Description:
The protein is α+β, with helices and mostly antiparallel strands and 293 residues long.
Amino acid sequence: MAENEIKALIRLLDDPDENVYKAVRKKIIAYGANILPDLTKAWQDAKATGRGNALLMSRFEKIVPLLQNNLLVGLINDWKDNSRDLRHIAWLVSRFESFSLDKQKFDDSLDSLRDLIPAYNTGNFTPLEQIRIFNTAFFRQMGFKPVPIADYYNPSNCSPDHVINSKIGNPVSLALIYMILAKEVGLPVYGVNLPKNFILAYSDDKRKVDFYINPMSNGAVFERTEIDRFLQEINLKPEQQFYAPCDAITIIKRLLCRLELSYRNNKDNVRSDIALKAYNALGEPLNKVIDWE
């Protein structure tokens, strides 16, 4: 696409004729990520210089985030083919709340937390002792804790970057940061797709779980019987997925499901739709009969 064409489209964004604007908007959205750098710069320049009138600024504020979020949906779709990289997907999901978040800055934040975990030879400790050492670092030294009930549906709490900085997360986002750090220091910790409270499992052999971990209770350790009791309380029949380690895609589906619900709960329908698109990009949806949240 010629540079002159881009500039012409951007200049026409403040045309008062609604039909002209609709045609321009349609063409801009069709170009997608290709036009995003120029469009973003024009928006930033208009804000910085004060030359943008109210009509132009309102149109920038609608189109630029839409293109940014559509780009993220595409990147999440690409990630699913290499879904072992939890750091990368955590960064991508964080960009729904802060699109310009720098990957190196995000990685540096995680690295600084990982460096707070004491180095020890796992062969000298039992699995329970290993988790107790990790919990002391994660919850006491780093200060991570569950989100208060009053702030439960704040979309920011679904952003891994926000969780890293605020040290507060919901069941899925807190579990995700816990798991990323645990795996990077050699602990075999996996997600478990339990409705209404995403949990973790310690498993040297993924065919057998040694014990479960609840990040929303300061890393409390519990056995399978506790899941049995919980499922009875919420009137769900036991299923293998409620007990077994799940894959990374399932974890991110749960996170995006909560993000979509949080946006919807805050009546942000535009971003709710985008989160839903990202969720659907990861393949088959979670069982709609089950109330996951």
